[in-house]
Amino acid sequence: MIKRAQPLGVVCGSPYMSELQAEQLAPISEWTPEYVLSLPKDEFDWLDFKRSDWLTLDAECLDSLSRYLSAWANYDGGYLIIGIEVGGAQLKADSGVDLTQKGGLKDWLEDKLPILVDDPLPQIGVASIPHRQEAHRGFVVIHVPASDRAPHQARNHRFYTRVGSKLQPLSKRAILDIINRQKYPRVRSPQRLCDPAG
Prior knowledge:
It is a single chain. By secondary structure, the chain is an alpha+beta fold. The protein contains 5 helices and 9 strands; from the N terminus they run H-H-E-H-E-E-E-E-H-E-E-E-E-H. Strands 1, 2, 5, 6 and 7 form a 5-stranded mixed beta sheet that branches.
């Protein structure tokens, strides 16, 4: 299991490991620019990348953030990494998010993000990772853990999930399934059960 905040290519043998799971990542407080750039370049249910100019912090951006928060909190959690040049053969940093905006972007996001969904999120992680050459610019990493208070509704009054690299509204049946998890929680085991007869 990957936990150390060293580049994933060093740990896994390849930064493009398709078997990588969110649980294998180091805590975001330990991430470095090199660690971010060693993540798989592909987006998954639990991983998405955005350019720095995506984080405008206007109403449209906050609505979009709200949909990500809803989707990941409603299921298994996920990571949004902002400051990545999207679409290349490997991850590259773009010019970087201005980490000083709003009087300190990390603190502002930690206060603002939990209330972008209804019921507010019980926990969220935000990390500002400065570029080595320019300390006031860098990556912003938002970690949304799975929530035991799900379902969470986005600002547009819909509930979301993430399927592959897309956000999708939930059906009524899926919403009821999430509500019933509190009565009948999912049980996961690291051990696989096998048929004793075969």
